């Protein structure tokens, strides 16, 4: 298929490569001309055959909203916009309604895979009608992990279902990282235990706490056993906050996820030992920046 891709950063650039390796034609646009295939959104749209499919991978909020608004003026009836960024699910209904005024379809897609998606594939959680999803399905199949039926799921026909699911995924991720981090801090502090990195490594086989996050933490601990080079400071992407907000709106108790979000706020007030491990894992899976002790 032919597809336009807006936003060629850490995720979008690797997605373009994976799509091309699967035989698809990708016309990419980015504000950084060194990354872009074309000079403007207009040129990108003009290069696509109809019905046109454009996938947006830009930061959530106003950058995404303004990009979709611009695409609305460039696309026409039967075309499709896919929002694959980390947009708040409440934005999706508004974007879908606006695009529908011109007969343009809309699909929201939560994408998980970080900087390793090029190699391993991406978990894709999408919302919208089956008719609209069918137009981008070849791209979905190329981006999802190979050799498995999992990794691609239609979360619901209501716009926002995909991003809501990805939001909850990220909330769970917050709590998992916090649990690993707190366990590491306790093991690292006591005198009775030796060789903490290999203790964590031993948990990767046969135990119920094995995961990719654990693999990433082991890698970081083997390189810097006490994480002395990392400051205990961790940002939040916004989706943890939205998860807690949705829990409040729906009267669903999320004590672990809420506590993990608040722990990140605490990390910005003082150097938090456990948050060194959270920062290390975020760097491992998503390439998120860490603050070194020398920078602090």
TrEMBL record:
<dbReference type="InterPro" id="IPR006115">
    <property type="entry name" value="6PGDH_NADP-bd"/>
</dbReference>
<dbReference type="GO" id="GO:0006098">
    <property type="term" value="P:pentose-phosphate shunt"/>
</dbReference>
<dbReference type="InterPro" id="IPR036291">
    <property type="entry name" value="NAD(P)-bd_dom_sf"/>
</dbReference>
<keyword id="KW-0311">Gluconate utilization</keyword>
<dbReference type="InterPro" id="IPR006184">
    <property type="entry name" value="6PGdom_BS"/>
</dbReference>
<dbReference type="GO" id="GO:0004616">
    <property type="term" value="F:phosphogluconate dehydrogenase (decarboxylating) activity"/>
</dbReference>
<feature type="domain" description="6-phosphogluconate dehydrogenase C-terminal">
    <location>
        <begin position="162"/>
        <end position="294"/>
    </location>
</feature>
<dbReference type="GO" id="GO:0050661">
    <property type="term" value="F:NADP binding"/>
</dbReference>
<dbReference type="InterPro" id="IPR004849">
    <property type="entry name" value="6DGDH_YqeC"/>
</dbReference>
<dbReference type="InterPro" id="IPR008927">
    <property type="entry name" value="6-PGluconate_DH-like_C_sf"/>
</dbReference>
<dbReference type="InterPro" id="IPR006114">
    <property type="entry name" value="6PGDH_C"/>
</dbReference>
<comment type="similarity">
    <text>Belongs to the 6-phosphogluconate dehydrogenase family.</text>
</comment>
<protein>
    <submittedName>
        <fullName>6-phosphogluconate dehydrogenase</fullName>
        <ecNumber>1.1.1.343</ecNumber>
        <ecNumber>1.1.1.44</ecNumber>
    </submittedName>
</protein>
<dbReference type="GO" id="GO:0019521">
    <property type="term" value="P:D-gluconate metabolic process"/>
</dbReference>
<dbReference type="Pfam" id="PF00393">
    <property type="entry name" value="6PGD"/>
</dbReference>
<dbReference type="InterPro" id="IPR013328">
    <property type="entry name" value="6PGD_dom2"/>
</dbReference>
<keyword id="KW-0560">Oxidoreductase</keyword>
<dbReference type="Pfam" id="PF03446">
    <property type="entry name" value="NAD_binding_2"/>
</dbReference>
<dbReference type="InterPro" id="IPR006183">
    <property type="entry name" value="Pgluconate_DH"/>
</dbReference>
